[in-house]
Amino acid sequence: MSTGKRLAKRSILGTRVACCLEDGKYYAGVICAVKTMDDGGPTVYSVRVEGERRAREVRESDLVGSGFTSVGSVKLRVGQRAYITHNNREVCGTVLYHRPNIDEVLISVTNPETGVRQDVKKRIEDIRLLESRKSARLADQDTDFAKLADMSTDRKERKPSQTIDVPAPTSGFQGSRKRRSSRTEEDQMDECAAAMVLMKLSCSPRSPVLPDGVMGDSMSPGSSVSSGVWTWADGSFSSSSSSSSSRSPAHRSATPSPPLSESSPATLDDGLELDESLFDDAVPRKRRSSTRTMFKCTWTGCHEMTAACDAIERHIRSTHLGREEVTSDHSDSDSDDEDDHEEEFYWTEVEVNVTTWVDPCEPLVTPTAPPATPPAHPVLGAPQKVLTIPPTTVIPQPLGTTCPSVLPQPTSPQYIHVSSPPTLSHMDMARPPHEASSPAASLSSSWPRTSAYLSSGRAKVRVSSSPKASPGRGKRNGESRKCRKVYGMEQRDLWCTQCKWKKACSRFGE
DNA sequence: ATTGCCGGGAA
DNA sequence: TTCCCGGCAAT
Ligand SMILES: [Zn+2]
C-alpha cells in the first residue's frame, strides 16, 4: 500500500549464489531463507553451501550472484575456484591472482584433452564463481573426436562461427528463469559420447584425458563444491535440469556435417561463396557487381574493416580484446586453441561498395576512421555513435523487406546490416546500466550488447518474401524482438513499461 | 518451450 | 491510474 515500491517479484529462494566464507573465498550455495530485520537491520541470508550440511547465515554483501554483488565487484582470493569458458567449454580453474585495477584475473586451468595445465588471463566479468548447469561442452569441429568422426568433411579453412547459434550470456549466476535449451545440445552430447567411446577404444583405458585431481590443491578442505566440471568425462551424464540454471557456456555452432543452409556468412576473401543468394545474389564468387561483403569491427568507436572475417577477428582479438595468439602460430586452420571466441561478438558483415576498397587481403580502414582506437578496454555500453558508417560502406536495402532480428531500432531500416555477431558479449550485466539517459539511446547506436540474453539464437538477416502484416493478435509475423527478448528477463527494468505490464510493447512497436 | 500481449483484476 | 498476471495464440 502506498509508497509505490515494487519488489522484484521472483523469489530468490533457491537461487544459486556464491557465498564468501571465512577464508575469503566464494563457494557455491543456495539461498534457503531470507531473514530481514524489519527495523532497518541488515538482511541476513541463510545459505546452504554445497558440501556442507548446515546452512549458514551470511550478509548480503557476502553473496555474489544475481541480485547480489556481481563478480565484477569483488576481489578474488588466490585459490578461489572459478569457472571460465575456455575453448568453448567450461572449465574450472583456480585463481592465481586477481588484479582489479587492471581487471585481470589469472586462472590456472587444466585442459581436459591434453591434461596440460595452463594459465589463462581473463577479465573478471568473464569469470563465474558458480558452475554452469551444463558444463562440459566440446568445441567440436576440430577437436580430436571431430577428426575421428569425420575428418573428411572439412578440410579447408573453417571459420569458428558461422551460424549464429546463440551462446550465452555470461555472468555466471542465475535467478530463476531457465535459459533456453538448445536442441543441438543433444546432438553434441551424442557426438561427444561417441567420441569418448572412440577415444576410449583407441587409447588406454585411463586416457590422458582428464587427470583426476585436476586441482587437487588449495581448494576447500572438505567441501566438494565441484561435482565435476567435466562431467562427461566422469561418466555422469545426468542432464539435470535443476531449477537454477545458469548461463550456458558459449558454444559455437557445432554441427559439422550438415551443410548449413542459411546463416553461413561469407568465408574467406577469395572465392568462397557466401550465402547472400538470399538477399541479393550478388557476389557469388568474387566481387562481381559492385558490392561486396566486408567484415567490420563493431567495437565502439572502431571502424576497422577487413575483407576476411578471419582478419577482423584477429584485429579484434589483438586490438580490443588484448589477447594474443597464445598458441603457436598454427598453420592455418585448425586447433583454434585460443579462448572462447569472443571476438566473434564484435564484428558484423557489411555490404560494401567495391569501389571504395582496394586490396582484398588487407585490412583497411574507412576513410573517416578516427585513429583513436581505445587503447585499453573501452567500456562497453558507453555509446558513442558507433555505426557512423560513411555512405560508401553500406548498401541500401534492396527491397521493401524487413530487416528483422538485427537492429533493435526499427525506425530506420534503410541500411541492411548484414548481421553476424552471433551473440552478445560476455559482459556481465548484473546491475542496471549506468548508462546515460535511456537504454534506447544505447541501443540505437549498436547492438544491444548490453543485453543479457538474446534468447533465440538467430541473428541472421534474412529477406522474407512478403512483408505480411496481420495486426491481429498474438504475435506479429516473423519479427518480434521486443524488450523482453532484447533485454531478457534478467534485465526487466530495462523494458519499456508496456512490456513490463505484458502489454503491447511501445518501444519496439514499429 | 518461449514470446507477445489481451483482458481482467487488484491496489 | 498503475501495476500485475492468467492464459492464449503464434512460434
Ligand atoms: Zn517494450
From TrEMBL:
Coiled coil: none
Recorded GO MF terms: DNA-binding transcription factor activity; RNA polymerase II cis-regulatory region sequence-specific DNA binding; zinc ion binding
Pfam families: DUF4772
Residue ranges with Basic and acidic residues bias: 149-160, 320-333
Keyword flag Zinc-finger: yes
Record domain C2H2-type: where: 295-325
Entry keyword set: DNA-binding, Metal-binding, Nucleus, Transcription, Transcription regulation, Zinc, Zinc-finger
Biological processes, Gene Ontology terms: regulation of transcription by RNA polymerase II
Compartments reported by the entry: Nucleus
Highest taxon listed in the record's lineage: Eukaryota
Major localisation: nucleus
Comp. bias regions, Low complexity: 238-255, 435-448
Annotated region (Disordered), positions in chain: 149-188, 238-269, 320-341, 419-481
Keyword DNA-binding: yes
GO CC list: nucleus
Protein name, entry field: C2H2-type domain-containing protein
